[in-house]
Amino acid sequence: MWKLLSCGLISALIVLSSPDQLLAQTGDQTGGRVIDVDVPAPALRGNLLNSPSTLSAAIYLPPNYDQQPDRSFPVVYLLHGIFDDYGVWIENFEVPSILDRLIAEGEIPELIMVMPNAGNRYGGGYYRNSPVSGNWADAIADNLVGFVDEQFRTFADVESRAVVGHSMGGYGALNLAMTRPEIFSVVWALSPCCLAVNDDLSFGNDAWQRAAAVTGPDALQDLMDDGDFYPIAVLGIVTAFSPDVEAPPIYGDFPFDTVRGEIILDDAAFDRFLDEFPVRQVREARENLRNMRGLALGVGLGDQFLHIPTGTLEFSQRLGAERIPHRLDVYAGDHRQHVGERLENIVFPWVAERLSVPE
Amino acid sequence: MWKLLSCGLISALIVLSSPDQLLAQTGDQTGGRVIDVDVPAPALRGNLLNSPSTLSAAIYLPPNYDQQPDRSFPVVYLLHGIFDDYGVWIENFEVPSILDRLIAEGEIPELIMVMPNAGNRYGGGYYRNSPVSGNWADAIADNLVGFVDEQFRTFADVESRAVVGHSMGGYGALNLAMTRPEIFSVVWALSPCCLAVNDDLSFGNDAWQRAAAVTGPDALQDLMDDGDFYPIAVLGIVTAFSPDVEAPPIYGDFPFDTVRGEIILDDAAFDRFLDEFPVRQVREARENLRNMRGLALGVGLGDQFLHIPTGTLEFSQRLGAERIPHRLDVYAGDHRQHVGERLENIVFPWVAERLSVPE
Amino acid sequence: MWKLLSCGLISALIVLSSPDQLLAQTGDQTGGRVIDVDVPAPALRGNLLNSPSTLSAAIYLPPNYDQQPDRSFPVVYLLHGIFDDYGVWIENFEVPSILDRLIAEGEIPELIMVMPNAGNRYGGGYYRNSPVSGNWADAIADNLVGFVDEQFRTFADVESRAVVGHSMGGYGALNLAMTRPEIFSVVWALSPCCLAVNDDLSFGNDAWQRAAAVTGPDALQDLMDDGDFYPIAVLGIVTAFSPDVEAPPIYGDFPFDTVRGEIILDDAAFDRFLDEFPVRQVREARENLRNMRGLALGVGLGDQFLHIPTGTLEFSQRLGAERIPHRLDVYAGDHRQHVGERLENIVFPWVAERLSVPE
Amino acid sequence: MWKLLSCGLISALIVLSSPDQLLAQTGDQTGGRVIDVDVPAPALRGNLLNSPSTLSAAIYLPPNYDQQPDRSFPVVYLLHGIFDDYGVWIENFEVPSILDRLIAEGEIPELIMVMPNAGNRYGGGYYRNSPVSGNWADAIADNLVGFVDEQFRTFADVESRAVVGHSMGGYGALNLAMTRPEIFSVVWALSPCCLAVNDDLSFGNDAWQRAAAVTGPDALQDLMDDGDFYPIAVLGIVTAFSPDVEAPPIYGDFPFDTVRGEIILDDAAFDRFLDEFPVRQVREARENLRNMRGLALGVGLGDQFLHIPTGTLEFSQRLGAERIPHRLDVYAGDHRQHVGERLENIVFPWVAERLSVPE
Fold first, then answer.
1. In Å, how far is B277's CA from the nearest CA of chain A?
2. Band (C2; pLDDT cuts 50, 70, 90)
3. Separation of alpha carbons D310 and A81, rounded Å
4. Less crowded by CB within 10 Å, the N or C end of chain D?
5. How far apart are CA D298 and CA C308, in angstroms?
6. Could you give the CA distance from residue A328 to residue A312 in angstroms, rounded to a whole number?
7. C323, A329: Cβ pair inside 8 Å?
8. Do B323 and C290 touch (CB under 8 A)?
9. How far is Cα C306 from Cα C314, in angstroms, rounded to an integer?
10. Rounded to whole angstroms, how far apart are CA atoms C207 and C190?
11. Is the CB of residue D55 less than 8 Å from the CB of residue D139?
12. For the CA atoms of chain A, what is the radius of gyration?
């Protein structure tokens, strides 16, 4: 029932034409500035969804970046949600203004914030490596981080590098924490999606059967044209979490068959499928996660995506069972409420405090 | 996507015209016979779904019921699932033949089995008390049990009375165990539905929003005409578990609002709603459940109704946490597979063994 | 194996002779001052442990308390752990200096902090009501709060009143949140004990059997003289959580019998016992807890009292299951490490931010 | 507090002098007979506890074993608990008589039952492979099974071979199911110990610290002489589950240090330790467990070893989460009550029904 055009996802498309305009937007000579960059991303080459192998990103440079040409800065990567792009950070949540204020008030040190675009035709690649949707984790952790450390004056060290994300980006941040601890050491996941397969993400959601019923390109096009949120999001999940390069037109494996309208689960396929989701990956990643300088999750109890509160709570419990330090914030609010104010009042100060800023 | 006509529920309508015909059906003078009865059920009076206040039931009388006119018998009540009737037991699972065989082989004592009909326009009243769908728990535990004990030679004692059910009837059996321990002392729930609100029963299933969107009688009629399984089952659940006599046309409370296609949960309403489901009721009912002579649950891991395996496992865990003896059978199979063979090989012998049969 | 004298509990006995001396102690004319008071506590009258019905407390008054005689202040109550007293706050954790610094730096508003003594012969009454150990919850929430609001210039309103505790005091803070929401609206529990009965608090700990074996006053005296931590703490738990005025010499009910050195659990007694612990009380208290302005828990994974991390994690999960907003901090560290720095850097600022400070 | 001599473990030592005597014992020419055998067990060679590398076992041969010299039989292996030997089966639970009755009544087919001794100086090797206590799993699955298949007329096939155990033997049966599915296909664990580390098996049990405090052979001898059950059992657990051939005199690693009487956990060591226990091994062993022809667990809620009911319930839940068919029986009773009657009425018939008995 959620149409993409009215599905309540966060940003509208915005165009960032030039750094100068953006600087003008901030309307404050003492603030930082935002530039946009195109970053070669060989990790995405050969993906089957025709996503370009170039990453676009907006980069916030702090107020004294230009004035102090010998100074280096810690870096925070900020990952957006499904069907969004970095416009959500800049226009909707006004992250540049938030950073200007926090820096001006001394709440956080001057830092660089990197906001990549990571959408695709199904809403996004979940910042995961997949032969179908592309190696998005590598694109961020290798291509983008490499580019930023080369092109900008950063403390090019894991201890000075954080990743923060919302929804699909919250999942992405945790996935990077679990798999790339040599790159990121501080992580905050806001309302992270896809930690566990339940509620609206369970196969009890009709969208799974609708997506699985697609057998040819026409049916796929019909599904896309229909514009319903969940079936298309399911395609994104299957291509990112359960890819199969031998299975056109979707190139993904569904862990069930449908017989007379009913789901028939396949044990081995279901095993493989569930094993790709974070609540099942904490144990294997426990040393990586324990070594984080900071690991935090927050979620609103009224999240419209019902699996997000339950998945976040279950993930916290698994962290606890594996004796992994972390912070969990459970608050009244939905998927989008309070995100901006939490970034300003809680997330950015907490993250910045844990980043190493060498003298 | 499940149409009612093709939804795979179990029985077709059958007509039992007379006891004599049924006796003929069994084709065996040494077997029992089945009669059908109409039982006044004042507990159903005034329900808002226009269900009649009469219960139909098929009753199996064991081989020697007539020949030994001074002998009394223990009684098992057998509760069918949603959108079914007692035909499922007689035609599909051939319960009378099963009982004949088990009695002939000495696997169970001679006993009476009572198979009521408990459907309504939304598939059934879940054997619960509700001012909207009717007081089905009382109809079974008071009206039907009273009738049977009066009209037939039974051991009219809780220790000689069991209740067994499948799917909606499995829920019903457990609900009666929790609330009417003075009536039933042995309980087996096969693939019980509705123990917890998750997977296909969670609000992540689109059917909830479709049902909640009904605001007038025309929309209700359209939903019914559409014949999809889940939205109609949701109406049955809401009228049985969350009735509201002040809220036409559905007369039920949904624990959420829908705003722009998204679910907005209401804490207090959600509390009240969840509190009506068994995983939350075990603690309060623990003494009742502990006093059962037998309490068992079985479920197939491949159940098409995804909440049934997860709910059954969670219910077992809650029973364990409250130190309540029980048996749990988890097997490979779906919602309907193995039901007949399990009744014969496992359920009926196990239940019968625990029933008191005074000398 | 933990002797009381070497058991690692926090404070040594200290004597606070007079407010003037304490003021001198702070060594800073711009800081606050600490006075000690004796508060009549009728709620403790008639307890069977001979605890006096007077509460001693240290009270921190902020720097401008005296200079601004028309100004009122919010109040934080600070509850110590087992076998401790308010000396732990003043000498070990240097709370007055922490508050002076935080106020001077503008991190928190000026506020009053009240630190009661709540020990008894078994280490403490757990800030619970008990006919045996005394009505400690009432002594705090009614007698002490009443006294403070009467004798000092406070915002005598629930929205301006917080309770913070460590270990037994962490339990106490949560117990007051669950039962006295009209008195306290902001709560932080540091390493709270006794949320669930497991690990070192389970009956698997030999101390339970040793305590339960006491049948007369001599055996009780021997146990006390022995000075082992756990058996005496068990006496404190039994008298506070499972009191029985008819059962000398301990006046408490153990939910098991011991036969030939083995524990025989009693279902009904075990039910009653477990029902008194917080993980089982969240559901009933959910509305109280949801209405908190702030609810937080923190725990070190290396806590020597093994039930504290597991209990805290389980409590958080129950809060989540009941949709109760809260913050959980899980960190590397033991029962005592980091308490002082967490009070200064995290707890007091977080608590103060949520307190209402009317203009 | 449990002394070994009075610790309530099951059997006294018995001597089986000859098969003839035993046959006489059964007092029935139509019953089976029991012989005792010594089996070379190279898998135990080189163990550091000086256990001999020979297994003793009692073997029940069914009534027609001798009369029908061309007939083969399925085999059930029966594993005893800690500080016991096969006498517990023969004298205490009268297994030969049970089998005679079941076979005579046609409840089970004629089968061979093999009852090995598996004790050591610390009570037993838990039927696990360990360089310290010996490779007990291999001794059973390879040496003993090989001997039996060679010396007796068996169906030497996994489908005709079951393993049943009680307490330590229940753990052993599940361990063999998880690791040796090519040998055993039907498994029943009665009151299995050691599935999870909690309650009396948690480090909250003082016995851990007492065992860990042993630093030399004298202290070890003192601990042994003391005869307390738990500290010695801890030695058995550490040598079997956490062996360290470099760490005399115990040759085991404790996952904690003790500082001033308090436990200091070590994350990495604790990880390794917990990973050896079954609740953490279900996922990896899921395909093995799913392929069982029968998998069942039973436990009495009043078990004196408190971790056994909680561990059994948790293990069942993990099985369910991994979609592994199984049966769980939770009943009123303690560690020893009902074991004999359950073997006769439930366990042996259920196991036998699932064994393949080729024509």
1. 17
2. low
3. 41
4. C
5. 30
6. 9
7. no
8. no
9. 13
10. 25
11. yes
12. 20
Q: How far, CA to CA in Å, does A248 sit from each of A129, A344, D265?
A: 19, 44, 51
Report the pLDDT value the prediction gives residue D14, as an integer from 0 to 100: 36
The arithmetic mean of pLDDT across residues B340-356, rounded, is 98
Query: Hey, which residues does D297 pair with through a beta bridge?
Result: D189, D328
Of the candidates D301, D325, D329, the beta carbon closest to that of B323 is on: D301
* pLDDT tens-digit series, residues A225-243: 988 899 999 999 999 999 9
SS3 content of chain D, % helix, strand, coil (to 5): 40, 20, 40
Residue C22: φ, ψ to 5° = -65, -40
CB contact under 8 A, C327 and A327: yes
Q: If we measure between CA atoms, which residue out of D255, D258, D253, D243 comes closest to residue D213?
A: D258
B160-176: pLDDT as tens digits: 999 999 999 999 999 99
Q: Which residue of C has its CA nearest to A299?
A: C325
Give me B309's structure tokens.
């395996």
Residues 290-319 on A with a CB inside 8 Å of C are 301, 309, 313, 316-317, 319
Cα A94 to Cα A78: distance, rounded to the nearest angstrom = 13
Cα–Cα distance for residue pair C7/D50, rounded to 1 Å: 39
**pLDDT tens by residue, C228-260:** 899 999 999 999 999 999 999 999 999 999 888
Does any CB of chain A come closer than 8 Å to the CB of residue D286? yes
Inter-chain CB proximity C306 and D1 less than 8 Å: no
Distance between CA atoms of residues A187 and B240, nearest Å:
45
The span from the CA of A114 to the CA of A116, in Å, is 6
* Nearest Cα to Cα of residue D201 among D278, D117, D264, D111: D278
Q: At what angle do helices B217-226 and B229-241 cross, to 10 degrees?
A: 130
Q: Do residue B330 and residue D326 have CB atoms under 8 angstroms apart?
A: yes
Interface probe for D, chosen from C4, C197, C198, C202 (most Cβ of D below 10 Å), is: C202
What is the value of ipTM here, to two decimals?
0.93
Domains of chain A listed by start with CATH number: 19-198+278-354 (3.40.50.1820), 199-274 (no CATH)
Q: What's D14-69 look like in SS3?
A: CCCCCHHHHHHHHCCCCCCEEEEEEEECHHHCCCCCCCCCEEEEEEEECCCCCCCC
Q: 3-state secondary structure string, D131-145?
A: CCCEEHHHHHHHHHH
Tell me if C120 sits within 8 A of C49, measured CB to CB: yes
Structure tokens at C159: 């929205």
D331 close to B (CB below 8 A): yes
pLDDT of residue A194: 98
Task: State pLDDT tens for residues C140-156.
Answer: 999 999 999 999 999 99
